[in-house]
Specification:
Blueprint (H helix, E strand, L loop, with lengths): L6 H11 E3 L5 E8 L4 E3 L12 E3 L2 H11 L3 E7 L6
Helix pairs in contact: 1-2
């Protein structure tokens, strides 16, 4: 079983590897599933982390995952209109 991610570590990683959503560009979102909570940074994300930040590149998403550990699902959105 995975350990829950420390909130401070999560916020640090989010500030390092994500940027505000930009309409008209591909935006990389991420889902973290754990028994304690779900992180879902999407246009219709959960209230656990009510953010509108997105990964600028696949590389940034990979670095984010490397820093926090496994257990993530990468999802791709375009203009927040749906999964691509």
């Amino acid at each position: 079983m995975m350990n829950p991610i420390d909130d401070n570590k999560m916020q640090t990683a989010l500030s390092k590897y994500t940027a505000p959503y930009q309409k008209g560009k591909f935006n990389f979102t991420i889902v973290y599933d754990h028994l304690r909570y779900r992180l879902d940074i999407t246009p219709c994300g959960s209230i656990q982390y009510p953010m509108t930040n997105y990964f600028r590149s696949i590389k940034d998403a990979e670095l984010f995952i490397d820093e926090l550990g496994e257990g993530f699902i990468i999802d791709f959105w375009f203009d927040g209109g749906g999964s691509q």
